Amino acid sequence: MAKELEKFKAEHKKLAAGTKKFTTAEGDKIKKRIGISLGNAWEGEDYFRESLAKARADGVTSGKLADFQKNKHFKDGMTTWNKAVDIHQGEVDAMTAFCGEAKAHLAKMSKLAADIEKDLKKRSKTSDSKKDIEALQGALAKEIGGVKKASEYEGKLNAMQKLYAANFQKNVAKIMKEKPDSHDKKLDATELPQLLVDRNLKKYTNQVGTLVKAINAHCVAAIDKAGEDLKAAAPDLKAAAAKYKDLKKINDQYQTVKKKFPRAIDDSKDKKKLLATLKKFNDLTAAAERKLRGTTVTIKKAAA
After folding, report:
1. How far is CA 137 from CA 120, 129, 146, 212, in A?
2. What does the DSSP assignment read for 6-54?
3. Which of 64, 90, 236, 266 is the most interior residue, by most CB within 10 Å?
4. How many beta carbons lie within 10 A of that of residue 266, not counting itself?
5. HSE-CB for 218 with a 13 A CA cutoff
6. pTM tops 0.70
């Protein structure tokens, strides 16, 4: 029954190309691209808000989308955001196609595995081909496991990743209804995750480091100046307080992200790095607050 072994080997060889294609490594690549494209779409949304504000500054007061589309700033913002959303949807579609094809390939592999299992059940223990077929069965089972994991990658996407593009028009309408000054007063929930984009994280990490150094320097200067003239310490205390206010604002934004978007952090390949950075921001802010408070108390006691 050596012909069955050759038949199984031939079928297995036909499946080899697909088996190499549908891997968790490939699933990770597509998922990473989806994360990047969503980050770019969020930035496009932020740019759209800025363009909307510019259109209003240009004198567009109507609440109708058609009137805003006549403004070059608004049109540019809408086009830029729309393109980013289309690119993101393309990546999500690529994931859907990848998983669909992987499942179809898995079905072919499973059929071959079933045929091999059926053959082995009726094959005698003394069969010369038995060991070779069993070896092929073991290799196939391992490959099936890998393809199965790859076929499930679409399920790793969160609701925001899956539905962001589908909600594009709804988001446009929502933003159009927001009060003109709302973006200066608060960060909208849909904007917050962009803070997790690597470029923004690096920018704010540098800002936090600079602010902490400035706060410490002003506090040290205030203590030194207070030794000679208490009034001379006031400018440095004021400057330290202003820097602390900026530091606290950054930290509050990131702690809000951590609270409201835990899934966005969990889904990130840099989860450990993100959590460590958020903790560092919080610790540095708390230390800066203690430094400023301690310096203020020391100077006030000296003035008493």
Report:
1. 10, 12, 14, 61
2. HHHHHHHHHHHHHHHHS-HHHHHHHHHHHHHHHHHHHHHHHHHHHHHHH
3. 236
4. 11
5. 23
6. no
